[in-house]
Amino acid sequence: MKALIVIDYTYDFVADDGRLTCGERGQSIDERLTELTKLFLDTEDLIVFAVDAHEEDDTYHPESKLFPAHNIIGTKGRALYGQLGQFVDELTYDGTTKYEWMDKTRYSAFAGTNLEIKLRERNIQEVHLVGVCTDICVLHTAIDAYNKGFSITIHADAVESFNPAGHEWALEHFSQTLGAKVVEKWVEVK
Fold first, then answer.
1. In a domain, 188, yes or no
2. 76: burial class by Cβ within 10 Å (0-12, 13-18, 19+)?
3. What are phi and psi of 24, to 5 degrees?
């Protein structure tokens, strides 16, 4: 079994007026993220939406010194963006839909969450990572996945960043240092 982990593809990270936006770069992967989500929904595999969750005016959080406030709980900034958001909104969660919404408060989707437990109890050993930002939250999630012994696939056509140089560096780092498979136009879910 596999898991598709969609990282931080939210209004604040992608919309033109998002609080910490990738803008057009992030918007350019919307269609591909939606396609991959649909592919995984047609399987027995798991989909996880790992979404940043911050408190307003939390001066103790380490990111508060580095970035403007973003993905504040209770704001539209945490909603999934674009076509992906519309598609997921149309799904009815009735206990059979194979996706999980996971709040995260750190860069990695593994840090302080039950993601590893969810994966292990389903015997998932292969994670597919998509979303934003390639060189921040996707990278830190990949590092934790590597250290926990998961096989990693990065969809190069479904990750982006507001930092083009960081994006390119991370794509190389995934394969060269973490042994991840970096793919484009992947359409095979077995």
1. no
2. exposed
3. -55, -35
Closest CA to 175 of 120, 115, 134: 134
pLDDT in tens, 62-102: 776 776 677 778 899 899 999 999 998 887 665 556 689 99
Residue 67 falls within a domain, yes or no?
yes
Count of domains in the chain? 1
* Residue 141 lies in domain: 2-183
pTM check: above 0.90: yes
CATH of the domain at 48: 3.40.50.850
Q: Do 30 and 84 meet the contact criterion of CB atoms below 8 Å apart?
A: yes
State which amino acid sits at residue 108.
Answer: S
- State yes or no: cis peptide before 137, omega within 30 of 0: no
